[in-house]
Amino acid sequence: MSRGSRSRSTVEHEAALDTSFDPLELSAASEWRELSDGGYSEVYKAHLLGAVVAVKQATSRKKTSGEALLREIRYLRQIGPHPNVVQPYGAFVEHGKLHLVLHFTRHCLRSDRVARQCDPIKVIAGVARALVRIHSFGIVHRDLKARNVLVEADDTSILIDFGLACDLRLDDREWIGRTVGTKKYRPPEMRDGRPAQPALDVYSLGLMCSKLVRQRRDAHSSDESSLSEDGREERRDMRLLLELSEDCTKSVPSGRPTAWALLSRLQRHMGEEVTRCDAPRSLVPLGRSPSALADAARGEIAGRRKRRRNSDGDRSRCSRNGSRDKRGREESGSREEIREKRARSSPEAKQRS
């Protein structure tokens, strides 16, 4: 897999927020492994200081892919840290393409195996809790489906993929009223061209509940333990999910429960204290603001051309300003080149030579 390289100066230039994230600490792009190829981005599995992360790269197939990824960055910063919303680690521009580094989770609710083995009530409660959080900011996801729900080993569900979301308070009417998302998960009001509202996500969650019931019934239909205590608990869980599905998929948006009402019912069913489990509303540091990232994406190619035109002048200045220009040339190299230069200039390398 061939992927472009980026300069360290691009990481640091126009930094809007203090952050410990450094894209130079990512594994080499040639080592990234493709996980999925979505509508507006390609997702890769990579390593950041030894930890596995997901790198979402804006695709070149769609002109609006960069805008979608910028929206996702903006919404994730706005939502802040939350146990049921994917955690971003940083964002950067490489060869004119925007990248977003995210928490990696191996399992997805789309998988039949995951759907059949997970705790269904805990998973759906986690999604409802995520909706409570994002709806409190006026954000509607608009692409809620099993594929966009990751499931951790302890059955904590994580909502991902905010590229089609909208902000009811800040976005323009055209975007709020646009028909987007997976067709079979769209509610009637979206098909009628009405503006988005939180009830849209609730409708999609209702369809997820009914799908989860079907997946689990297929798995447990021949289960000899259906008369055991576990079997009785499973039936109680399925009844609740079907009730929620019926309530959530009502044709009139005002007749659907809120995400908070859903979460309350699920928590009472689990015998838990009813709580939103919200973290403080704080911005997630992503290295720089979305507007700065957009400016960098538009200007990086032009900047590289300008550097090439001025290369002769740079070489002459280097003779007069040795160490400073040497560092400047290092910063304009790729992540791989920078690593090699640092390794050659390390004290250990000098001792070996």
Automatic annotation (TrEMBL):
Pfam families (alphabetical): Pkinase
Domain Protein kinase: 29-270
SUPFAM superfamilies per record: Protein kinase-like (PK-like)
InterPro entries cross-referenced by the UniProt entry: Kinase-like_dom_sf, Prot_kinase_dom, Ser/Thr_kinase_AS, Ser/Thr_Kinases-Pseudokinases
Listed PROSITE patterns: PROTEIN_KINASE_DOM, PROTEIN_KINASE_ST
CDD domains per the UniProt record, alphabetical: PKc (cd00180)
Gene3D superfamilies named among the record's database cross-references: Phosphorylase Kinase, domain 1, Transferase(Phosphotransferase) domain 1
Positions of the UniProt region annotated as Disordered: 281-353
Gene Ontology MF: a single term: ATP binding
Basic and acidic residues compositional bias, start-end: 310-353
PANTHER family: SERINE/THREONINE-PROTEIN KINASE TNNI3K-RELATED
Protein's recorded name: Protein kinase domain-containing protein
